[in-house]
Design a protein that fits this description.
With 804 residues, the chain is of the alpha+beta class. Helices cover 18% and strands 34% of the residues.
Length: 804
């Protein structure tokens, strides 16, 4: 893929897939983009790139957060027609000045636009003012209000314009701070709805990914004699907040040089982003219309398929319906049964583990009858996800439609991603304990039957079945895709393949493989894999087994068994020549080789089937050696001090005894002697110190330092000022920081030092004055060497007192 890369972490470091030639690159230079091209100078046809349909391109100054890349927050998400996706920018940063720019396919004429800000995810700040421009002219300043944070959005009117380019620049947010954004969520727009005055629909964008074409272009018609395999993978992440899916579906464009017949296979997942009904259909769970129970929830924990409403009535206290992090109060679970139920109590089981918020009051609605249920105080359990049973009794209710709403909770808070801010933890109900409300056994295997709503090629539906164990439903690529109608024949030319979005259909197709063999090299497919012939799998069956037997901070030991041929042993930590591997009682593997783009790898040629490998961080040896040397040196110093003291203690009285002629001398501190500097030194010292101050701090500080040093050089009494002032300045800085911290209680986030701007220059002045004093001392020592060699007039050369 043509995409940016950052190196600020070992994950979340890849940007969105870009258009060929970087046509949709950010509007401003991204200093964090440090991509390393595998083959520099590659043509676009060698890479997977994006093709936008509906507009020419959509760009922004930045997206996501200031540390890592989150391609799901890219600018195109503001025009995709889905209010639950969004362009988001500047999490942990200052959003003012950020821009979104839309280059249309042609010109449109309109006098209004509808703006909708993000409707989900973290939203602890939002945009309050923007400036709109049309073809970089006619700026219009707009204040955004609460309407812009609703599904319908805020309609902004302006003088009628005809334009090709529309730009939004953020000028204000509700956060008035000018620094310390470490707790700030991203801001942006989920939808920017523009419509020409004569059009019947808004301007929209559909993204396709253009598959690499250089290989087939180079072979051309000769490709008919070779097997061809097309692999398409949806870019996906584990949807743990704040991350959501970068690709909601597979949308590909590819070109074939000749007629081919392809076998189809692939992998899929049941999508946790889908509506409850779509998930129930995908899992094969019958609803009330088919004799089961229809379960739904206002929301459940993002990305956790096992945290749905079903979990609160499955009879298993280790599973639970869990609310999302945002908006715990007001969340509800809802059930419809085939027949009315009558009940007057609930054996409620709540998660109470110190990590979840705990409900304090529930509302029970049954066919219009309402019961307010107060939860008595309960103690937290010592184990994660521990539950407490709370019996509740109330006047009997009867009905088929049962809803339980969380009205209040005992709050628990946790730190948000990469900041010191805290956010309310979700609440969890393990079991409702309503008599008769029980989920029948869910199917252990998934088989969706042939569905025509999941895959299309060139606009024609291709029927597929999704099968696999129910336990693998939530694992990425855990289920298999099977073509219902056999191979697919595609002619030469351009083809478009699209899949349904998992959030709509309940099934996400994660990976699709189209495999076309030849008579000489037949291919077969199954379980998402491609095989040579009918049963010779391309995957090696001789992969050895590796078990970690020791995992220390600087040393790892792995036991290898079943090794019958050379293999690569990979340590998934950033590559460093400091890592060293060896086979126990065998060969030395030496330093690692770069593998997987970041990790340490060693090629192992086994001499036996079972052996141990030790991987060691060798610089630690130097650290240990240095620690022992330091310890021994400290002991030696203590010994020297002790022996010296023991030897000298008997001579101490003699050494300190006064002499008879001591009273004849006028004693003064040696440091009080003023050494007169030469004219050359008195000129050179201010220039040198001032230049140093100007380079390290700022020019005006250099001038100040030069002036102070000149005073000290021409008038030695000023030396005391140079010595005393730095300490006073540093003490002043400490007092200023302490007062500011006490007043504003700044959190301990990574940019904490930047919130005390007045302390920096003062501290640097102190450091520069200390350096200036050193300069004066060195020059003074050189100037006074000649005089220091001559004894003072009142002390003879032999050291005896002079006569009075």
């Amino acid at each position: 893929r043509l995409q940016a890369r950052r190196w600020t972490s070992v994950k979340d470091n890849l940007g969105y897939t870009e258009q060929a030639g970087g046509a949709d690159a950010p509007l401003t230079t991204d200093p964090g983009d440090s991509r390393l091209d595998v083959f520099p100078g590659e043509q676009p046809g060698a890479l997977t790139t994006t093709v936008d349909v509906g507009v020419e391109r959509v760009r922004a100054t930045a997206y996501g957060n200031t540390i890592t890349y989150t391609p799901e927050d890219r600018a195109a998400r503001a025009l995709d027609g889905d209010p639950l996706t969004a362009w988001r920018t500047q999490a942990f940063g200052d959003a003012r000045g950020q821009r979104l720019r839309i280059d249309l396919d042609g010109h449109i004429t309109t006098d209004h636009v509808v703006l909708t800000q993000p409707l989900n995810g973290g939203r602890n700040r939002w945009i309050t003012q923007v400036v709109l421009t049309f073809d970089d002219k006619y700026p219009v300043t707009v204040n955004l209000d609460d309407r812009s944070r609703t599904y319908s959005g805020q309609t902004i009117t302006f003088p009628r314009h005809t334009f090709h380019t529309f730009q939004i620049r953020i000028t204000k947010t509700n956060d008035a701070r000018t620094n310390m954004f470490g707790q700030s969520d991203a801001v942006g727009f989920s939808e920017v709805r523009l419509r020409d005055e004569h059009a019947t629909h808004d301007v929209g964008l559909v993204e396709y990914e253009q598959m690499p074409s250089d290989l087939l272009d180079a072979i051309g018609a000769g490709s008919a004699g070779h097997p061809v395999v097309l692999v398409m993978r949806r870019e996906a992440v584990r949807p743990v907040p704040p991350r959501t899916q970068p690709d909601l579906s597979i949308d590909r464009i590819f070109t074939l040089p000749s007629l081919r017949t392809f076998a189809l296979t692939g992998n899929a997942t049941v999508s946790p982003d889908a509506p409850d009904a779509a998930i129930e259909r995908a899992l094969g769970i019958p609803g009330a219309a088919r004799g089961g129970i229809t379960a739904s929830a206002s929301e459940f924990l993002l990305g956790c398929l096992a945290c749905r409403a079903d979990a609160a009535i499955d009879g298993d206290p280790t599973t639970a319906w869990q609310t999302p992090f945002v908006g715990v109060r007001g969340q509800w679970i809802d059930y419809t049964t085939p027949k009315p139920l009558t009940f007057d109590h609930m054996d409620l089981q709540l998660i109470a583990d110190g990590r979840h918020s705990v409900p304090r009051r529930l509302r029970l609605d049954v066919d219009g009858a309402t019961r307010e249920l107060d939860i008595p105080p309960i103690a937290d359990q010592s184990v994660p996800n521990g539950t407490v049973t709370v019996p509740l009794r109330f006047p009997a209710v009867t009905g088929r439609h049962i809803r339980v709403t969380i009205e209040d909770v005992r709050e628990e808070h946790a730190h948000t991603y990469a900041s010191a801010a805290t956010r309310l933890e979700p609440a969890g109900i393990a079991e409702l304990g309503i008599p008769g409300l029980s989920l029948s056994n869910a199917p252990t295997r998934i088989d969706t039957g042939c569905r025509s709503d999941l895959l299309t090629i060139d606009g024609r539906a291709v029927r597929v079945r999704i099968v696999g164990p129910a336990s693998a439903a939530t694992a990425t690529m855990g289920l298999d895709v099977i073509a219902c109608d056999g191979p697919v024949t595609l002619g030469p030319g351009r083809h478009v393949l699209t899949t349904a979005r998992g959030k709509d259909a309940g099934i996400s197709l994660d990976r699709l493989v189209l495999a076309s063999g030849t008579k000489a090299v037949p291919l077969s497919v199954g379980d998402g894999h491609v095989s040579l012939g009918s049963d010779a799998s391309l995957a090696s069956s001789t992969m050895p087994s590796i078990v970690i037997t020791h995992n220390g901070r600087t040393t790892l030991r792995a036991h290898v068994s079943g090794a019958t041929q050379p293999f690569w042993l990979v340590l998934g930590e950033s590559l460093s020549p400091g890592w060293h591997a060896r086979i126990v009682h065998g060969s030395d593997l030496g330093a690692p080789t770069l593998v997987d783009g970041y990790a340490n790898g060693w090629k192992v040629t086994p001499s036996t089937a079972s052996f141990d490998v030790v991987m060691e961080w060798t610089p630690q040896r130097q650290v240990r050696t240095a620690i022992w040397i330091s310890l021994l040196t400290a002991l030696l110093c203590i010994g020297i001090v002790a022996v010296t003291w023991w030897r000298r203690r008997g001579r101490l009285a003699t050494i300190t005894a006064p002499r008879s002629g001591d009273s004849d001398f006028d004693l003064a501190l040696a440091s009080g002697e003023r050494v007169r500097l030469s004219r050359r030194v008195r000129v050179l010292a201010p220039i040198l110190a001032g230049t140093l101050g100007a380079l390290i701090v700022t020019p005006w500080v250099g001038v100040l330092i030069a002036a102070v040093v000149a005073c000290a050089a021409w008038s030695p009494a000023w030396r005391d000022v140079v010595r005393v002032v730095p300490g006073a300045l540093l003490a002043l800085c400490g007092l200023y920081i302490a007062v500011q911290q006490y007043r504003y209680d700044f959190p301990s986030v990574f940019e904490w030092p930047t919130v005390f701007p007045r302390a920096r220059t003062v501290a640097w002045i102190a450091v520069a004055l200390i350096a200036a004093d050193v300069i004066i001392e060195v020059l003074a020592a050189r100037s006074g060497r000649a005089r220091a060699a001559d004894p003072p007039a009142n002390i003879p050369a032999d050291g005896d007192p002079a006569p009075s």
